[in-house]
TrEMBL record:
Keywords: Membrane, Mitochondrion, Translocase, Transmembrane, Transmembrane helix
Taxonomy, superkingdom: Eukaryota
GO molecular function terms listed in the Swiss-Prot or TrEMBL record: cytochrome-c oxidase activity
One GO term (biological process): mitochondrial electron transport, cytochrome c to oxygen
Descriptive protein name: Cytochrome c oxidase subunit 3
PANTHER family according to UniProt: CYTOCHROME C OXIDASE SUBUNIT 3 (PTHR11403:SF7), CYTOCHROME C OXIDASE SUBUNIT III (PTHR11403)
Family per record: Belongs to the cytochrome c oxidase subunit 3 family.
InterPro entries: Cyt_c/ubiquinol_Oxase_su3, Cyt_c_oxase_su3_dom, Cyt_c_oxidase-like_su3, Cyt_c_oxidase_su3-like_sf, Cyt_c_oxidase_su3_a-hlx
Cell location: Membrane
GO cellular-component term (any): membrane
Native species: Macoma nasuta
Protein task: Component of the cytochrome c oxidase, the last enzyme in the mitochondrial electron transport chain which drives oxidative phosphorylation. The respiratory chain contains 3 multisubunit complexes succinate dehydrogenase (complex II, CII), ubiquinol-cytochrome c oxidoreductase (cytochrome b-c1 complex, complex III, CIII) and cytochrome c oxidase (complex IV, CIV), that cooperate to transfer electrons derived from NADH and succinate to molecular oxygen, creating an electrochemical gradient over the inner membrane that drives transmembrane transport and the ATP synthase.
Upper taxonomic lineage: Eukaryota, Metazoa, Spiralia, Lophotrochozoa, Mollusca
CDD domains per record: Cyt_c_Oxidase_III
């Protein structure tokens, strides 16, 4: 099943790149479909995150079964001023770098775009490395309570988005290297 998903994704990406790069542009129907599909994707992701944050806060209000403690004992929560704060700074810097890259691509400055795209890919890899380290150091698992379930679902979903974004940015870095954005 994973092989089918990955090969379908690769084939779809190659089709999109071929249409946009070598054939000149997408048809209006394809462009409209991409916009609608991406909009629906963003809406579904927003609902997914809202649902898990709702579960997180609803569980955190406290109930008698957990002794009105959040997180429930014996869970020791992740220290927020260490790796999570560092990862937040990395993502904010990556957001600034991707804006820099977008502006460079918009004015057809290929060399200028290479630096921020490379920084974004590096930032994604560093983020994922620190998140993996955070998982290894955590004193709880996904099965320990609603706290563990929500924590790992939210951070895992976020990490999968960072992984996907890093892969897309790496593809953009390669495409920029081969002058796919210059007409």
């Amino acid at each position: 099943a994973t092989w089918l998903l990955l090969s379908s994704f690769y084939s779809w990406m190659m089709d999109i790149v071929t249409e946009a790069t070598y054939l000149g542009c997408h048809t209006s129907i394809v462009a409209r479909g991409l916009k609608i599909g991406f909009t629906l994707f963003l809406i579904s992701e927003a609902f997914f995150f809202v649902g898990f944050f709702w579960a997180w806060f609803s569980s955190g209000i406290g109930n008698l079964s957990s002794g009105c403690l959040w997180p429930p004992r014996p869970i020791i929560p992740v220290y927020p001023w260490g790796a999570p704060l560092f990862n937040t700074a990395i993502l904010l810097a990556s957001g600034a770098a991707v804006t820099w890259a977008h502006r460079a691509v918009a004015i057809h400055d290929r060399e200028e775009a290479m630096i921020p795209l490379g920084l974004c890919v590096l930032a994604g890899v560093v983020f994922l490395r620190f998140q993996f380290g955070e998982y290894k150091a955590a004193s709880f698992t996904i099965a320990d309570s609603a706290y563990g379930s929500c924590f790992y679902m939210l951070t895992g979903l976020h990490g999968s988005h960072v992984l996907g974004g890093t892969l897309f940015l790496a593809a953009m870095l390669v495409r920029n290297y081969f002058c796919h954005f210059i007409r």
